[in-house]
Amino acid sequence: MHSTLDNVTAVSNIRVATSDRYKGSSTGELKEEKERHNVVLFGRLAEECRSILRRGTCKYVEGSIRTRRWRGRDGADSYTTEIVGSVLRVLGGGRSYGSVRGAERRYALHGRDTAIPRF
C-alpha cells in the first residue's frame, strides 16, 4: 500500500515473510516456522520502493520495531507492531534489472534522510 502522510511525506507499507528451520528436539524431524512482518517506509525510501519492489522480490530490511495503538470504529483499542524501515536492500528475484547477473546485483536504499513520524 502506498500513500502520503499529510500530503507531503510518502509512505509505503509492505509485508516481509521470514522463516526459521530447525530440528525438533524429540523427533529430530526438520521443522519450519514462518512469520509475516509489517514494514512501513517513509520519504525517499518509500518512493523508491514503489518503483523497484514487486511481489516475490527477495529483500533485506533494517529498522526499528514499533508498536502503536489505534482506536477502531467500535471504540476498542487495537495494537499494531511493525518495523519502521531505515535500510532496504533488494537481493534479487521478482524483477529483472537488465543484467545477466541481476540476481547478484544489490540495491541499497537508506531512509535516514527522512524524519520518522511519531505516532
Computed structural class: mainly beta
- Provide the number of structural domains: 1
- The percent of residues in helical segments reads under 10%
CATH architecture designation: Beta Barrel
Which CATH C-level class is it?
A: Mainly Beta
Runs in which pLDDT lies below 50 for 5 or more consecutive residues are 95-107
Q: Please, how many helices?
A: 1
Q: How many strands? A: 6
Mean pLDDT: 77
Give the CATH topology. Answer: OB fold (Dihydrolipoamide Acetyltransferase, E2P)
Verbal overview:
The chain is mainly beta and 119 residues long. It has 1 helix and 6 strands; from the N terminus they run βββαβββ. The two termini are 18 Å apart.
List keywords for this structure.
6-stranded mixed beta sheet; flat; mainly beta; OB fold (Dihydrolipoamide Acetyltransferase, E2P); ssDNA-bd; single chain; DNA-binding; 119 residues
How is this structure best summarized?
This protein has 119 residues and is mainly beta.
Break the fold down into its secondary structure elements and pairings.
Layout: E1 2-5, E2 9-23, E3 30-42, H1 43-52, E4 58-71, E5 77-92, E6 107-110
Parallel strand pairs: 3-5
Antiparallel strand pairs: 1-2, 2-3, 4-5, 5-6
InterPro entries: NA-bd_OB-fold, Primosome_PriB/ssb, ssDNA-bd
GO molecular function: single-stranded DNA binding
Pfam families: SSB
